[in-house]
Automatic annotation (TrEMBL):
Transmembrane segments: none annotated. InterPro entries: SAM-dependent_MTases_sf, TylF_MeTrfase. PANTHER family: MACROCIN O-METHYLTRANSFERASE. Signal peptide: none annotated. It comes from the Bacteria. This is Macrocin O-methyltransferase.
Length: 262
């Protein structure tokens, strides 16, 4: 149920409603109130397309306007659950950290699982600029203009409000605001069992790995959210792994997510 709420699986129609209304505004057309109310009759194919794509590969605009708490889709949430449960069962020491949290849903999910399984001590660290991505600075990130997408900018106050809605905003959630190249240099957390790298760019991915990889506990999980979708991200992972002689096998989660164990 929590996963369905975080993914907005109950509210797919609202994304289409907002998208439709914006289209009417952009094209100076009057909206049809019956279409707003009964969008399922007018756009049945699009609703089916959203429902048939639980891993969130298509229809970015309509999906985002439904305001899910996370964009990572069902397979990556399922996999994250398996990782948290494996860490707890195998007693891998360390906290959990997501670098690139957007609206907070994946971090909320990790915090909820700690409660569900009665873990009394681990913390969830949430690192983000809370103002979207930086403009591309490296050649490897050329033309990756994610900084121009207002949808990717979510304020710290909004993310904290999202945790509070689920009753999960407490002292076992720590926020790390700022650009990764600065914000991840602090000594806490000292040890990580799960690192979720979701910063899209070569530079962001490299900043995450450079600053945090050496804190991974043996047996921990490093997740790279954009490994399949963004070649620049994949290249950062390959460059980092080859520079550090890491050859632990990489496992594919879905069309974009991948992970390895440390
Ligand atoms: C694709 S979104 C993350 C999606 C999220 N994990 C989810 O569950 O839906 C990428 C996030 O990374 C953040 N980000 C990317 N590069 C960054 C950097 N260098 N420093 C700080 N934040 C960064 C952006 O602000 C944005 O919130």
């Amino acid at each position: 149920m929590l996963k369905r709420i975080l993914l907005n699986e109950f509210g797919a129609e609202n994304g289409l409603r907002i998208s439709y209304l914006l289209y009417c505004m952009d094209t100076s057309q009057p909206y049809n109130l019956d279409e707003v109310i009964n969008i399922h009759r007018y756009q049945a194919d699009k609703i089916a397309a959203l429902r048939d794509d639980p891993d969130g590969q298509h229809n970015y605009r309509e999906r985002m306007f439904g305001f899910p708490y996370t964009m990572i889709g069902r397979a990556r949430l399922d996999s994250l659950q398996t990782m948290v449960e494996t860490v707890l069962r195998e007693e891998i020491p360390g906290d959990f950290l997501e670098a690139g949290a957007w609206r907070g849903g994946a971090s909320i999910f990790m915090r909820a699982l700690l409660d569900l399984w009665g873990d009394p001590a681990r913390k969830v660290y949430v690192a983000d600029s809370f103002q979207g991505l930086p403009p591309p600075q490296l050649e490897q990130d050329e033309n990756l203009n994610f900084h121009l997408d207002p949808m990717l900018s979510v304020g710290l106050d909004v993310v904290q409000e999202h945790f509070a809605r689920f009753g999960l905003l407490d002292d076992r959630v720590a926020f790390m605001p700022g650009w990764f190249e600065d914000s991840l240099k602090v000594p806490e957390p000292r040890q990580l069992a799960i690192l979720r790298a979701d910063g899209d760019l070569y530079q962001s991915t490299m900043d995450i790995l450079d600053n945090l990889y050496h804190r991974m506990a043996p047996g921990g999980f490093v997740i790279i959210d954009d490994y399949g979708a963004i070649p620049a991200c994949r290249r950062a992972v390959e460059d980092f792994r080859s520079a550090h002689g890491i050859d632990n096998p990489i496992h594919t989660i879905d069309w974009t997510g991948a992970y390895w164990r440390t």
